[in-house]
Amino acid sequence: MTLHGFILLGLALFSLGLVAVLSRRNLIAVLIGVELMMNAASLNFMAFNRYVVKDPAIGQVFVLIIIGLAAAEVAIFLSIILRLYRLRRDIDVEHLTGLKG
Amino acid sequence: MDSLTLVLLATGAPLICFLICILALRPHPGAARVVALGGMGLSLFGSVTLLLQGPVEPLRFLWFSSGEIQLQFGFLLDGLSLLFAVAVALITFCVMLYSIGYMAGDPGTTRYFAMLSFFAWAMLSFVYAVDLLQVFIFWELVGLASFFLIGFWYEKPEANAAAKKAFLMTRVGDVGLLIGLLLILPLSNSFDLPHLLDPQAGLVRLALPATLTLITLLIFVGIVGKSAQFPLHTWLPDAMEGPTPVSALLHSATMVAAGVFLMARLHPLFMASEQTRTVVLCVATFTAILASTMAMVERDIKKVLAYSSISQLGFMLIGLGAGSLFAGVFHLVTHAVFKALLFLCSGVYIHHLATNDMEEIGRRGGRQLRLTTAALVIGSAALAGVPPLAGFFSKEEIFAQLGHGGLGPFAIGAFAAAFLTAYYTGRMVFLVVAPAQIEETSHDHHGDPQPWVMLAPIVLLALGALTLGFFGSSIAATLGVQLVHHSLVSMLPAIGVVALGGALAWFDFGRKSAPRRGFITRLAALETLFIRQWYVDDFYRTIVVRINTALAKTMHFIETRGLDAGFDRLGFNTLGLGALATRLQSGWVQIYTGGAVVLLGLVVAYFGLR
């Protein structure tokens, strides 16, 4: 596989994630979309690290941070979804318009 | 006692009495009368002693200085102020004594006497003032005191209106005075009167002739307002709404006299400007004639006296404008005495017969108040200028001055005014003394059933009106002026004019088969003009007031519909814009996210394509 293939794979993953974030009603699906986008970014970093930069540490540092971030984010996101469900019995994004002007 | 103690006594005693009365004696009108009268007595004692001690150096205390400018407070004790202060104190004292009888039983007695004391303090401090700023402050306080006293019966709407009118119309003049004074300050850096009037280093030298003319004309505007000259004279007849003793005070020694006194005080400045002198003479002569014509047709005795005050104030200004300090001041002093006398007499009639109308006074038996009627005749004769009473000598002095100065047209005007004065004064006397018929009343009016406190001042002032004319030389000496004695022949025109006016009045009102209508009734148009007071007040009411109201309305329109509405619209539009903007906030997270992505895409595209 070449750098080109990795970039295309990352792009596809990112786009799928974006579509999920923008179009899915279910909050959990949105969360999965966000995870996909983050993983696409991680893949990108690793691919550039492997093919462009000679020092292997730089890309790995970024990826490790992203993995940590994603773990924290999932924990918070899921707890919010849980509270929301308990409160409203509903996690449809289109119904969560409490901040409407 | 030294001068400072005396002058502080003369000015301070009324002030302290005012404070005592107004603060502590509200429930004790009897005590207030005694305190006010006592204070005025002390003040009179102080001013008379000062006059007897003669002129001394001015007493000055630095009030404050700012840079080059120095402002002082103090007392100017020259002949003019010493003399006039005595007249003020004496007449205020007489009026207070008289008021004890006149105002007996009035619920506002304490307030009345407190305000009289306040008035006396303001006027005496004005007269003694050494600094023009001090002059201005007390000038305004005199106006304020007049406002309070004219509107004394504040339950009466007419009294309130008259008080407001007096205050506002004099304020029109005061604007001129203030501007005039402010023009002086940069020239001299000081308002000190002896310094300003100094012929070598004073204002006459410091100011350009044109500037001096401007300054004196502006000051004269203030004098016109205060001394009720045309065109600002209409407040004075309305001021009759106050109690009669107040009118006596207002018309003789205080308030209106303040204007003439200021001109006498600044006489050298006025003399230095030929244009100002001409303006003064024109205004004063016209006013003297104008007011006399109005007095000819008036039926209210107090208003006749009010018009005559306006006319006599015109005479004083003619005298001063013609160049003789002595003529103006002499007439100011004699007029103060006989006009106070006449008002006090009219007060007795009003008090006793409960009417202001002269014919009504005659019909109800005014002449049976013998002492008062005798005093009225004396006062009227003095006013008309019958020799050898006070008014004759002072008026004669004015005529002589006009003759010396070669001011022919003004002399003719003054003679006309004097003729009319004799006529309307005669009319007043004959209407009271020789009525067509006398009503039979149940109670007899024999003698004067008035309390002695009302009669004593009348007698005192009547004696003054009888004899004051012979003190001309000592008054001239006090003023430091050389008096020129006039021959009997030069007095003849003055005597003739008075005799003519008196005879015409007798022909119209006095004789047995008199028509009891003025000759002016044959000239209907003129009579209407005089009765409507030359339409001056109507002019103010219809034109000036209307213009003012229209201006105010325009301003109100601009304010509410223009400025206010503009800012209102700005506010409302901002609100509307905000309301519009809130619609963007759908609360739908995915739209925000999509928007962010699109925006990001646009930014990337922009930078990528560049």
How would you characterize the overall build of this protein?
- By secondary structure, chain A is mainly alpha-helical.
- Chain A has a single domain (3-92), classed as Helix Hairpins (Orthogonal Bundle).
- Helix content of chain A is 77%, strand content 0%.
- Chain A has helices spanning 3-23, 27-51, 57-88.
- Chain B has 610 residues and is mainly alpha-helical.
- Among the domains of chain B are: 273-527, no CATH class; 540-609, no CATH class.
- Chain B has helices at residues 3-24, 29-53, 79-102, 109-128, 132-150, 157-188, 193-197, 203-206, 209-226, 235-238, 244-252, 256-265, 267-272, 274-297, 301-321, 325-353, 358-363, 370-384, 390-404, 408-433, 452-467, 472-479, 488-510, 524-531, 536-582, 589-609; strands spanning 59-66, 69-75.
- In chain B, a hairpin with a 2-residue loop joins β1 and β2.
- In chain B, α2 (29-53) runs antiparallel to α3 (79-102) and α20 packs across α23 (488-510).
- The termini of chain B are far apart.
- Classes of the chains: A mainly alpha (101), B mainly alpha (610).
- At the A-B interface, α1 of A face α26 of B.
What gap, in angstroms, lies between the N and C termini of chain A?
Answer: 50 Å
User: In the CATH classification, which architecture of chain A applies?
Assistant: Orthogonal Bundle
* Count of alpha and pi helical runs of chain B: 26
Total strands of chain A: the figure is: 0
Contiguous runs where pLDDT drops below 50 for at least 5 residues of chain A:
none
| Main sheet strand line-up of chain B | 1-2
Radius of gyration of chain A: 17 Å
Q: How does the helix and strand content of chain A classify structurally?
A: mainly alpha
- Please identify the top-level CATH class of chain A: Mainly Alpha
- Helicity range of chain A: over 70%
Main β sheet profile of chain A: none
Largest interface: A-B, 13 and 13 residues
Percent strand of chain A equals under 5%
Radius of gyration of chain B: 31 Å
Mass-distribution shape of chain A: elongated
Shape, per Cα inertia axes of chain B: globular
Structural class of chain B: mainly alpha
Fraction of helical residues of chain B: over 70%
Low-confidence region ranges of chain B: none
Strand content of chain B: under 5%
